[in-house]
Amino acid sequence: MNDNRISDDFEHDFLAKGLDQQIRSCASYVLTPLFLESLRTHQPVLEAGCGSGRWMHFFKPQGIEVVGVDWSTSLRDRSRAHDPAVQFDTGDLRALPYPDGAFGAIIALGSPEHVLEGPSKIYQEFHRVIRPGGVGIITVPYLSRFRGLTYTLTAEPTRRLKRNRWLRRMAKKPPLKNGNPISYREMMAKKYRPDVCMELDFDGFFYEYQFTKAQLREELQRAAFKVDRLFAFSGEHGIVITLGSLAGRIDRQTYQIDLTWLGKLLLRLLSVDGTGHMLCAVVSK
Q1: How far apart are CA 103 and CA 160, in angstroms?
Q2: Is residue 250 in a domain?
Q3: Integer angstrom CA distances of residue 105 from 34, 59, 172
Q4: Which residues of the chain have pLDDT under 50?
Q5: How many whole angstroms separate alpha carbon 248 and alpha carbon 267?
Q6: Which pLDDT tens digit goes with each residue over 32-82?
Q7: d(Cα 182, Cα 186) in Å, to the nearest integer?
Q8: What share of the chain is helix, strand, coil (3-state, %, to 5)?
Q9: What whole-number distance in Å separates Cα of residue 270 and Cα of residue 124?
Q10: Domain count, the chain
Q11: Can you tell me the distance from the alpha carbon of 225 to that of 122, in angstroms, rounded to the nearest whole number?
Q12: Domain for residue 27, yes or no?
């Protein structure tokens, strides 16, 4: 949100895929039954961090009134060209452009984690714009014990080596610059753990935080939400994103996963709670 390079990459990724294809993919998403069950009786709905707008266009023929907000004018314009009746606004999740109690529900799918200072202000805004009795469905990256152990043993040492000035000088590579207003050491000292496996993060640009169940619950309760359900999902993605090519491959166009023998073994041995890529919180006000 406050790092143009990361934001530009998100925009490019969404624009590279046809909107019709993205909308069709919503039907097979693992959380779609939950969305349809929860949102039909709590309208209108705000999608905070709506990206391409695909969910808004998917929900419309389901009889669900949705307003979306994101930062990208390019994604907004494409969404409006697809269907101008679907409301796509531009704005900051930390200062939503809506009055108190404007919505019966809110969904935020992988958006609160991309703010360097943490998600507290975002959750406070979510609570403000939902009316009493309203609900929310929020997903963020999951720092499971499996992922945390793997990062400690592999990814973080690799990152330290890649950032070592002496080693880079030996390899005749320029020193890496920090792309954030705070240093990597300061970032790691924060309460939440930054994702250190993403390639972009190796050159000093913040990408996202990952959260334990306890951390997500604490943040939502601090914002005065009641946490009704909290669960991990997307185990296959979690294994591949954590272990990389050792566990399998993700098709970036279709998001289909091809697991190696190791990935299949881990998926069989470990629960979704241990391998899940994302956490989902169902909350109420």
Answers
A1: 45
A2: no
A3: 13, 13, 54
A4: 1-3, 196-202
A5: 11
A6: 999 999 999 999 999 999 989 999 999 999 999 999 999 888 889 999 999
A7: 6
A8: 45, 20, 30
A9: 35
A10: 1
A11: 13
A12: yes
